[in-house]
Amino acid sequence: MKKIGLISDTHGYFGNDLKDFLKDVDVVLHCGDWGSVSTFEEVSSFKPVIGVYGNCDDQDVRLEVPLFQHFKLEDLDCLMIHIGGYPARYDYKAFQLIHQIHPDVFFCGHSHILRVMNDPHNFSREEPDRKMLVMNPGACGQTGFHNVRTALRFKVEGRQISDLELGQWPR
Q1: CA nearest to 165, candidates 13, 11, 47, 25
Q2: Torsion of CA 38, 84, 168, 73, to 10 degrees
Q3: Nearest partner of 18 among 170, 167, 171, judged by Cα
Q4: Which of 31, 65, 76, 152 is the most buried (most CB within 10 A)?
Q5: Beta carbons within 10 angstroms of residue 148's beta carbon
């Protein structure tokens, strides 16, 4: 079993409220818009990180993390990209990757809007009844149009996600 923290759009902010919320996780997933390479270094020194760069990230951040990540969490096949969208409104690059990779879980950021939902379409070749889970943790940074800063944490065991929890703070 792994405990996962999911954040996005820090835009240079990784404060004690986030650290407290993520203190017991095994790995932090960051869906881009770090804000600076120093924020990447701060998060990376706090916990192991799997991350991607966002549209606001400069060349220094882009040298540290890729455009997208395809990885395993336990037995879940995962895909992460910053600009992803959501079912029926995926960004074109995200849509191409989803059709190429057929992930169990799709992580994205960018919108500053928290969303956790199943895609009603089937992207699996092996399991015709399986639906892809889409997770966007919203924005946990201080910059943007959002009124509430959000982050998620959950557990993964095998192919099961459980104990999904929301952290939220005023901006």
Answers
A1: 25
A2: -80
A3: 167
A4: 31
A5: 14
Q: Tell which residue, 144, 165, 139, has the closest CA to residue 14.
A: 139
CATH says 2-170 is which class? alpha beta
End-to-end alpha carbon distance in the chain: 32
pTM for the model: 0.96
- How much of the chain exceeds pLDDT 70, in percent? 96
* Partners of 160 in the β-ladder: 157
Identify the DSSP state of 101: H
d(CA 166, CA 105): 18
Quickly count: other Cβ atoms within 10 Å of residue 67's Cβ.
Answer: 15
Task: Show the beta-strand stretches assigned E in 14-159.
Answer: 27-30, 49-51, 68-73, 76-83, 105-109, 114-118, 133-137, 148-157
Kindly report the average pLDDT of the chain as a whole number: 95
pLDDT at position 144 over 70: yes
pLDDT at 124: 64
Q: Which amino acid is at 125?
A: R
